[in-house]
Amino acid sequence: MQMARVLCVNPWIYDFAAYNLWMEPLGLLSVAGALRHAGHQVSLIDCLDRCHPDAPAPRSRQDRYGCGQYSKVEVPKPPVLAHVPRRWGRYGLPVEVFEAELDAQPRPDAILVTSMMTYWYPGPFEAIRRLKARWPDVPLALGGVYATLCAAHARAGTGADAVLTGPGEVVGLRWVQEVTGGSRTDAVPLDDVLPAHDLRRPQGYVAVQTARGCPYRCPYCAVGLLAPGRFCPRPPEGVVSEIAWCVESLGARDVAFYDDALLANAERHIHPILDGLIARRLRVRLHGPNGLHARFIDRALADKMRRAGWVTVRLGLETIDPEDQWRDGGKVDEASFARAVEALLGAGFLTEQVAAYVLIGRPGRDAADRLRLCQVARDTVAYAHSLGVQVLTAQFSPIPGTVEWEWAVSAGYFAPDADPLLHNNSIYPCADAGAWEAIKQQIREGNRALRTS
Ligand code: B12
Predict the structure, then answer these.
(1) Nearest residue CA, atom 46 of ligand 1?
(2) Which of 52, 75, 275, 385 lies 20 to 30 angstroms, CA to CA, from 245?
(3) What is the CATH number of the domain that holds 94?
(4) Does residue 187 fall inside a structural domain?
(5) DSSP one-letter code for 4
(6) Residues 39-62: tens digit of each pLDDT
(7) Does the residue 184 lie in any domain?
(8) How far is CA 322 from CA 327, 329, 396, in A?
């Protein structure tokens, strides 16, 4: 089989704000792992590398566990965001450093560019523009979350030769083999092939995903579109080996789980993973930035999480309104949430380590419903604070292809072909920003009171 030289690129973020919360281009690294497994030679340019020797990101005393700021350059706001009274910018490596990285690369046979949030598409656009200016004839494919959820938009505007949707290990490999004239090897043993974490300059942390997809189908969530088909947990021993490799060989100290349902089927999944980490005595801190399902947390699990080195716990609460809870998939209620908090605090987690996500900025059916949603959010915040946990906001924005998106379009909040820049949750696309910003103030005060009490 003919081996190809493949360049993988993780683009910049364009947004009003961006903070590195254990971000790793895990999807792109998974595709890179599959290509490498098939014998191709793979390299990476990561525009979000905070440890680049020629452009280290700003450091602050508040930085914890590998998280922190990106360098930002302010750039003109696209006209569609002109109404937002905030400064827009490009986060990540300076463009000159990116160009110097390209200078250092031999001409690739194929290029793969990833994309994350749909409203971050200017990052991939800019990377592709520069890559095509340098190597117009090298085949280039775009994949990832934006490419999958907004495929028509991506095909119309990116300048990529191919927009590949969905999980990329098999389609990415097949595409590389097609465009480089190699023979086909379709079989990618997904359980054995690890994301190529080592392509990245060590950042002190890695992201790990222990399962593909999610057993739930919530109306606001796009995971069913990104990872269609069955919920597929990986074998626990494979997850433990991946973490051990990252800690022992790549120097990672912090591990963030990127799962959508990490605690589902806990006895056969998270329990053995934590047992394995404890048995290997890894010096690791564990973080769950994506909300965990509170109803799966009992005292035995909370104790084990602590023993394995778990530090950051984020619980999905969203709302305490029973009807809204039911509409969102019935995953949590007040009683199960309170039990989880009791178990976590009883196991020794500190109040600043545990936070509840509360959903804000949701669209109402009419004026009365909008008022009700604000009041429910206030009550939800007060409830979480009363249990002794911090509150973080999950700001609502409908995602294309989801049930909530269809509703938002039919209610006139979005044109069906709205510019994806308008999906940005920080601009409250479906709600009155003023009302919700006041609730954020209540959250800040409650969090501060808890920390000082
Ligand atoms: C981890 C995660 C986060 C992390 C950070 C992620 C990051 N790296 O930036 C945190 C917790 C910070 C986060 C925050 C948020 N997130 Co988030 N997050 C995820 C999550 C759970 C996993 C993403 C991931 O890395 N998956 C693992 C890899 C393996 O999958 P992947 O990236 O899709 O890659 C595969 C394919 O896409 C493809 N692929 C990828 N690149 C390429 C390239 C090529 C060339 C090819 C061929 C294929 C390919 O192959 C890969 C392997 O199969 C997804 C849900 C999901 N399951 O995708 C939501 C998701 C991306 N997040 C989402 C949302 C809504 C948010 C928030 C807005 C939540 C909120 N309301 O506050 C915030 C906003 C963050 C911000 N700053 O704007 C939405 C997307 C919204 C959008 N409009 O795009 C998602 C889809 C969840 C959902 N509810 O539907 N998130």
Answers:
(1) 143
(2) 52
(3) 3.40.50.280
(4) no
(5) -
(6) 999 999 999 999 999 998 989 988
(7) no
(8) 9, 11, 18
